[in-house]
Amino acid sequence: MRPAAARTENGIVIDAPFDLVWEMTNDVANWPKLFDEYASAEILDRRGDTVRFRLALHPEADGKVWSWVSERVMDRAGRTVRAHRVETGPFAFMNIHWTYEETGAGVEMRWRQEFHMKPDAPVDDAAMTERINRNSKVQLALIKERVEAAARAGAAVAR
To answer: Which of 26, 65, 106, 136 satisfies CB 3.0 to 4.6 Å to 10 for a cystine?
Structure first.
């Protein structure tokens, strides 16, 4: 039986066309340019709308680098992405559901994460929930800034 899950949900509205938001946020190979927490993203396998990849964070002060393999299944028509960690590391499991909804102000992108930490993990579910919520706000703001800048640059070129 799987343990009860911790959950987080964070979102942001990006003032850019859906196609640009979708393309930039699902271009995993370029995530180190979109997120500031990733040092590298290596595509391991791609089959249709499914991509398996390895992410690595920037080294910690002691030189430790956290990395893991994840898999994403993108459903552009449904405007959703389902992802999970294949190599779970300190997590018993980690599932992420991304949704994209067009609003009058742009595209609302939401991340819903469901996870449970292993008993020997360096932090428990509550501490990881706080960490994810704090970091998601930072990463979402960066994504908004970078996608909106790309939208403005594209608009300037189109004129």
So the answer is: 136
